[in-house]
Amino acid sequence: MHQGRSFIVAAGLCACLVASSGSWGKDADPAPAGPPSWIDHPKSDDSVFLYRVGHADAQKDRAAAQQAAYQNALVVIVDEMLARSGVDEALRPDLVVSLPIQNAELVPGAVYMEMNPAGFTCWVQVSYPLAEKAKLLERIEPERKKALDRVEFDRRLTALFAEARVAHGRGEHEAARTNLQTVIQSYARLRAPTFDLQDAQVLLGDTYGAQKDFLTARHCYETVLQAASPKWKDMAALRLKALPKAPRAWPLNDRWQGRKVALLCAVRDVGQRPRPFSALAGVLARDCRESRLESVDVTSSLKADAIAAFFDQRSVADADEVAKRVGSRVVLAVLMTTDPAKRGKTEETMGIAMPVADTEVAFWVVDVDAATACYGDRFSEVAEGRSDTRLAERVASILLEKYLVPKCPALTSTP
């Protein structure tokens, strides 16, 4: 009997030790408690605050997860207020953006985080003052009306585009063009576009092409070439190939943003004062006109010393001032300097006597708004034996085809 009692006592001691050991291990490494009850059963609204829960999944870190869950809670609050106010569900996403929540705060201790292979998941509970809720409810109706206006604007612009497509198909190109210009100018205001901007731009190019306005059609297609979508870029490229060849100075229309060009064209012998070279100004004016660029010859408006200072010292102030007076925002300045000692001279090249270049052509493009020369260079040419007309044509061809069109950058100042 005594032995039996001893065995029971010993067994009890062992059980206590095992239980005690298990308790210590639990204190050192607690098992997960699981999601807190406030996630499914948030705190009830009281006389000062309402309480709502926000949630976010697959976030990169704890801070991002908490912030995303907090933002979600704000959306929950706004959406609930919109529903209470009878706002149509289709309008709510638009109104959530225009009705920011003020003074919503995290409830102390009401942040719960989990981590899984997809990232961090977070729940938060926020409090929102009832005084702010009242202000929010007052703002809903005015914002709802604005949203309805935006919806109606989308509907009207979409209808204009559909009408333009039908008009173009019927050959009513003027009506199509008017509608498309409105659509393109207003496209950025669309809340939820149902068609691509490039679709309208290509159709506008087609409309201009049907009216034989090939340069404006070209401009429309070239605008589409800037789109990110290969579909629209390929379509625009095909349309461009079908158009007549563009004037040689056409790329400058885009780079110079269609601005009026002041032409400054002069010629001088080495050591002499510059004088106007009207033949070259005339050729360049023709190229501008063909490329839809208005131009004006301002050479005679500058004194010889100012022209010399422009090229020798890159002093653009006088040319800039003259250009502004005539409403020009770009200056194309060209100065031809001839060395009389080289006129009529030849040099042997591979057994052939070749004329020596006797003239240096220097040029600058000036951005009038920025008051800076944004591009310039120089090249040599033979003037001896050429009339002013032939020389002007030759210099203009080299200037445009070898320098301005392939190399001149776009202006940086805004139109």
Please describe the structure with a list of short key phrases separated by commas or semicolons.
disordered N terminus, three-stranded antiparallel sheet, 415 residues, Rossmann fold
Please write out the topology.
Layout: H1 2-28, E1 49-59, H2 62-84, H3 92-98, E2 105-116, E3 119-129, H4 130-169, H5 173-186, H6 197-210, H7 214-224, H8 230-241, H9 250-255, E4 261-269, E5 275-276, H10 278-290, E6 295-297, H11 304-313, H12 317-325, E7 330-338, E8 346-349, E9 352-355, E10 359-367, E11 372-381, H13 388-407
Parallel strand pairs: 4-6, 4-7
Antiparallel strand pairs: 1-3, 2-3, 4-5, 7-10, 8-9, 10-11
Helix pairs in contact: 2-3, 4-5, 5-6, 6-7, 6-8, 7-8, 10-13
